[in-house]
Amino acid sequence: MSKDNQILEDLNSKEYEHGWSVDFETDEAPLGLNEDIIRWISTKKEEPTWLLAWRLKAFKIWQAMPEPEWANVHYAKMDLQALRYYSAPKQSKKPKNINEVDPELIAIYERLGISLNEQKRLQGIAIDVVLDSVSVATTFKETLGKLGILFCSFSEAVKEHPELIQKYLGSVVPMTDNYYAALNSAVFSDGSFCYIPKGVRCPMELSTYFRINAANTGQFERTLIVADDSSYVSYLEGCTAPQRDENQLHAAVVEIYAGAHAEVKYSTVQNWFPGDKDGKGGIFNFVTKRGICAGDHSKISWTQVETGSAVTWKYPSCILKGDYSIGEFYSVAVTNNYQQADTGTKMIHIGKNTKSRIVSKGISAGKSQNSYRGQVQVMKRAHNARNFSQCDSLLMGDQCGAHTFPYLDIANPSAKVEHEATTSKIGEDQIFYCNQRGIATEDAVALIVNGYAKEVLNQLPMEFAVEAQKLLALTLEGSVG
Amino acid sequence: MLSIKNLHASIEGTPILRGINLEIKAGEVHAIMGPNGSGKSTLASVLAGREEYEVTEGEVVFQGKELLELSPEDRAREGVFLAFQYPIEIPGVSTTNFLRTALNQVREYRGLEPLDAVKFLSLMKEKMALVEIDQKLLSRSLNEGFSGGEKKRNEIFQMAMLEPVLSILDETDSGLDIDALRIVSNGVNKLKSEKTATIVVTHYQRLLEYIVPDFVHVLYKGRIVKSGTKELALELEEKGYDWIKEEVDSTATV
Which of A105, A193, A289, A374 supports an S-S bond with A344, CB 3.0-4.6 Å? Predict the structure, then answer.
């Protein structure tokens, strides 16, 4: 309650507050994309030959793929040859722990409100920070290590735990999956890796914070989370980028594996630069996220709050392979000005007695377009599969659009699938009611929108929920009245 | 406290109020009665600052300030409270959260520190007793799925929390059974003081048995056509509005 008010009081800036960038020496790949660049990246990262071969295979596949056009988004295609596929801050030597990280880099994150100092960190969150193409720091490694939990950058995992990477890399999102997943497989630079051993409940939230700093650079990170049988982990992802006039590409892949009785909660607060009021600049966020409930009684839960990016194309999905496994998707997607979002989920029921739940809350303002696209697929042997989908759209003003594209594909007659959808507008009478009690219009909008999104926000860990509420209000400032 | 002079207002070009004059002093209760469509609710909405209504003429001075020049939220912060005829639903926002936001914005406007959670809760407890409202209701989404009686009781609870100077009750009696009517009226009566005033907009005399007015005004075709004391309300109850309509319409044609 007190936090809500704090948030309302904090609202004073209408601008994207993370729009600054910092100049520092970087180690960059030449512009453009070809086999040599991929070799360059692989050499730079001192990768084993199997990984280079994997990348080159992906590149071949990607070259034969057309750029997808089915999403309900419109944008000028990027010249992928004009991008840089690797950019890393220069560090004289590889830091062994957080105390050896360049203070200049730590300062960047301090400015974003993220302290990498373990003493200063709030208890209970370990963080891996990725700047442009590389992971710069991971906190609480030792604490987690005592429990056998591996949490490190992807590059480090390739070196230290190659057997795990070889086993799981591309096992949930194969390189052939789609255009951007193939591109990512060819050029991915870093990301986070996390492994929770059998029966271990991760005692803190694990978190990755992505920041794009350099200009003309695409960010292609990969996250791989493996939760072995009967383990539990809650994972958070946050992101920001400087304000730039040109569009920037973010094409990430996230893979989650959950063993029997394991549970993974994955939460995202996405705050990439959305472009300015006239629709100039902003991040193209073309991301593939998928989890597999491989074991019986496993559970994967996606929660996302999407406020940024010029164009979003993202469908965090669950493959419910294990019997009695559960998939959940909770989403709030806000678009304002000229933003476009085409987002939703796929729930693929393979095992018996599998359950999925989809709660999607779209909020459109300004001249933006917001689409929910969701697929529920029940395979032949998925007896007693259950799905419940709730897709709500909230419109602000009369120049925005909200669209819903549900796909149902049911091959087993015992399935029970429910779909509910509503569309509403923030009513002038709601705002007047708030005004009449002394609440200013912008605060009224924040209150109404947060109420609308409550079911999703409640799924977020506390610290993130507060951040998300703030973001919702900030994104919509100035959109009414 | 409130001085309305020659107030004209219209909605989408149709005049509704055609010259209202009304003086209200601190400590007074004024009842506004009249047949359907006479402009009673419009008057309440215009005072609260609803945007659909356009004020075409006249002025309203509230505690020395030009009320019509203030935004709706500033009118509320100055102490004008409207109990809605049809309270609005806000899904996902509890009454508690809503009121905490409202109260602290009002306090900020008045140069007071925001109430912390503990003080806010103890204030809530105190006011809850006043209108016999259940705490469970206050943690539910505001007005969503409330019965008619619960909505009205919640309005009066909000009024108790915000401690307005001028309370306007817009047909608060509509949709209430006799028990709810008694509880709501008791709440209003307990909140009355020498420093505050109340405008009761109602169609029926029934409510005025509980909230006894000092003055009764009859609104017809956008004007106050008759004023009197509570006896006037009884007369209206007995004879209906037709005799007043005839009186006004015949003088108008002369």
Answer: A374
User: Under a CB-based contact definition with an 8 Å cutoff, are residues A419 and A391 in contact?
Assistant: yes
CA–CA dist B8, B55 (Å, integer):
6
Contacts of A439 in chain B (CB under 8 A): 73, 101-102, 105
Q: For chain B, which residues lie within 8 Å of any Cβ of chain A, measuring from their own Cβ?
A: 48-51, 71-73, 75-77, 81-82, 84, 87-93, 96-106, 109, 114, 116-117, 120, 141, 158, 162
Q: How confident is the model at residue A127 (pLDDT cuts 50, 70, 90)?
A: low
User: For residue A380, is pLDDT > 90?
Assistant: yes
For residue B12, the tally of other CB atoms under 10 A from its CB is 7
CA-CA distance, A71 to A395, in Å (whole number)?
A: 20
Q: Are strands B53-62 and B65-66 parallel, antiparallel or unpaired?
A: antiparallel
User: Residue A359 CB: number of other CB atoms within 10 A?
Assistant: 20
Mark yes or no for CB contact A447/B101 under 8 Å.
yes
User: What is the C-alpha to C-alpha distance for residues A221 and A185, in angstroms, rounded to an integer?
Assistant: 9
Q: B144: nearest CA in chain A?
A: A451
> Which residue from B75, B92, B104 is facing A452, i.e. has the nearest CB?
B92
Candidates B53, B75, B101, partner chain A, best to mutate (most A CBs within 10 A)? B101
Task: Look over chain A and give the mean of its residue pLDDT values, rounded to a whole number.
Answer: 83
State which residue of chain A sits closest to B114, comparing Cα positions. Answer: A5
- A45-49, A223-227, A309-313: which has the highest mean pLDDT? A223-227
Tokens of A57: 């295979």
The tokens of A311 are what?
């164009």
3 state DSSP class of B33: strand
| pLDDT of res. B123 | 93
Highest mean pLDDT pick, A140-154, A316-330, A395-409: A316-330
Mean pLDDT of the region A286-306: 95
C-alpha distances in angstroms, A150 versus A227, A228, A346? 11, 12, 29
Q: Would you say the C-alpha torsion A70, A71, A72, A73 has a positive or negative sign? A: negative
Question: What is the number of residues in chain B?
Answer: 254
A91: pLDDT strictly greater than 60:
no
| H or E element, residue B17 | strand B14-24
Which regions of chain B are under pLDDT 70?
Answer: 252-254
Give the SS3 label for residue B186: helix
Q: Is the pLDDT of residue A383 over 70?
A: yes
Reported pTM: 0.81
Computed from CA positions of residues A18, A24, A28, A32, in that sequence, does the dihedral angle turn out positive or negative? positive
Contact B202, B217 (CB under 8 A): no
> What mean pLDDT do residues A431-438 have?
96
Cβ-based contacts of B139 with chain A (< 8 Å): none
